[in-house]
Amino acid sequence: ETGVTQSPTHLIKTRGQQVTLRCSSQSGHNTVSWYQQALGQGPQFIFQYYREEENGRGNFPPRFSGLQFPNYSSELNVNALELDDSALYLCASSLGLESSTDTQYFGPGTRLTVL
Amino acid sequence: AQRVTQPEKLLSVFKGAPVELKCNYSYSGSPELFWYVQYSRQRLQLLLRHISRESIKGFTADLNKGETSFHLKKPFAQEEDSAMYYCALTDYGQNFVFGPGTRLSVLP
Predict the structure, then answer these.
(1) Is B101 on the interface with A (CB under 8 A)?
(2) pLDDT exceeding 70 applies to what percent of chain A?
(3) Which residues are bridge partners to A65 per DSSP?
(4) How many CB pairs under 8 A join A and B?
């Protein structure tokens, strides 16, 4: 198993609330990507951070935001939660920006339920 | 817009039979293509990438730009190959697109 960890494992929130999900990358990995995986679907790319700067973003509204810290930890923040935000949220870390050769290592995910 | 399709949600084969998991993509440039696998109770992990042209656990995948396909193949399926398989592409690492996945079930 890789060294990517995520917390919490499960989370229940109500519509309109805000949530922060956390990820700890493998040591030395400067890139972290976040994905949303709805039930029965493949992961959907939310955004990617490289050395604390957003490097790419998928088709998600601004209420999805992130932070990456120098200690290889990162956060995904979601404001004004909607029912459709219920999903498994995955983070993945990789060494750098060479997507053709740098392997993404995934965490176990955080299961978010919005009621 | 980039898109990855995997037409089969579930594929069942018998042990020792050949297996082919289909993947088609739509992308205007030259994407980088990958296969990811998720075994039961394990994390999503990279199986192989097209740029490496390697065989991993007996699996190979050939990029066919004319047909915009990247099918995953194995000549003789094993029970331990049972898992969820996702085809994915990226455009220089700034956007990753995953397909919906195919569940492979290898029967004894």
Answers:
(1) yes
(2) 97
(3) A77
(4) 59
